Amino acid sequence: MVRLFDTIEESNMAWIIAADRALRGAFDKTLIDLVPSYTTLMVHYDCRLLSHGEAHGRIREALEYLQPADTQAGQRHEIPVWYHESVGPELQRVADRAGISIDALVQRHCDRDYCVFALGFAPGYGFMGLVEEALATPRLETPRRKVAAGSVGIAGRQTAIYPLPSPGGWNILGRTAVPLFEHARRGDPLLKPGDRVRFQAVSRDEFEAQGGDTTPLEERP
What we know:
Elements: E1 2-3, H1 12-27, E2 31-36, E3 40-45, H2 52-63, E4 76-83, H3 91-98, H4 102-109, E5 114-119, E6 126-129, E7 144-147, E8 151-155, E9 158-161, E10 166-168, E11 171-175, H5 180-185, E12 196-201, H6 204-209
Parallel strand pairs: 4-12
Antiparallel strand pairs: 1-3, 2-3, 4-11, 5-6, 5-12, 6-9, 7-10, 8-9, 8-11
């Protein structure tokens, strides 16, 4: 595990992306997998081809003259979301914590680009941030047994989209029809670390026309 930072900041990604590229080049055919995250990179290499000491040497050499990458090189995705209490039961909870209306919450959630920091939890699940401080909301005390695919939620200052039905404790604000799991299953996740996401509010009719499922989500776990 290669740790570059101790705190989560959007500015980290320029260095994480640069380190990802440098380490891939340094390990070349000995690399099995490399997983970038908020502050770290996990280097999974073939220890039959490389000793522990040699791996450390390659890491030190790769990072010695590291320069930040261009964070605008990643893709920018516009994700349409139907924000409604039937599919976003925590809309009122998050709005109340911030002292604003639901309409204002939706506007502010859609008002910025979110950096994709890491993929995990489920295939295609991108951890994104940072949500503005005023909208930050703790996870639910008791997770739901089932969150619908496409659900868009907030936890702390992170936001994310559930790519398939699964348990989860995030505050759900709405739902998208974008098929994240289908992309991941084909081996090419739609969201990748370093990409940016902008949410776009759409009506129920638009959501249904895009193939969205309007089945209500349970209000509480």
